[in-house]
TrEMBL record:
Pfam families: ClpS. It comes from Deinococcus proteolyticus (strain ATCC 35074 / DSM 20540 / JCM 6276 / NBRC 101906 / NCIMB 13154 / VKM Ac-1939 / CCM 2703 / MRP). The keyword Protease applies. SUPFAM superfamilies: ClpS-like. Belongs to the ClpS family. Keywords: Hydrolase, Protease. This is ATP-dependent Clp protease adapter protein ClpS. One of its GO terms (biological process) is proteolysis. The keyword Protease applies. The lineage of its organism: Bacteria, Thermotogati, Deinococcota, Deinococci, Deinococcales. InterPro entries: ClpS, ClpS_core, Ribosomal_bL12_C/ClpS-like. One of its GO terms (molecular function) is peptidase activity. Involved in the modulation of the specificity of the ClpAP-mediated ATP-dependent protein degradation.
Amino acid sequence: MTRPDTDRAGHTQTLERTETRKPRLWRVLLLNDDYTPMDFVVLVLERYFRKTEQDAELIMLAVHHKGQGVAGVYTRDIAETKVAQVTQLARQEGYPLRVLAEPEGKGAL
């Protein structure tokens, strides 16, 4: 929306109102596999997603029993950074843990 305004010299200026929207949020998902130890998943959740030990264990169990679990919800840049960090650590440790980010509100995989 715009509205006219005048400066001191009497010239008309147009002032623009800008609307800001909250950025779209992305879910970071951990996917189950048969090789990554549960303790490693808990460690990742505590270290990179700042989960308490109890919350990390609950998410790890969801990953184990349901095939996936939500590690956290972030803006896109932060979600992609966390995916890269966790994937790098998992590969360094020799685990195939899959981590991905998807827009919030999207259906389950």
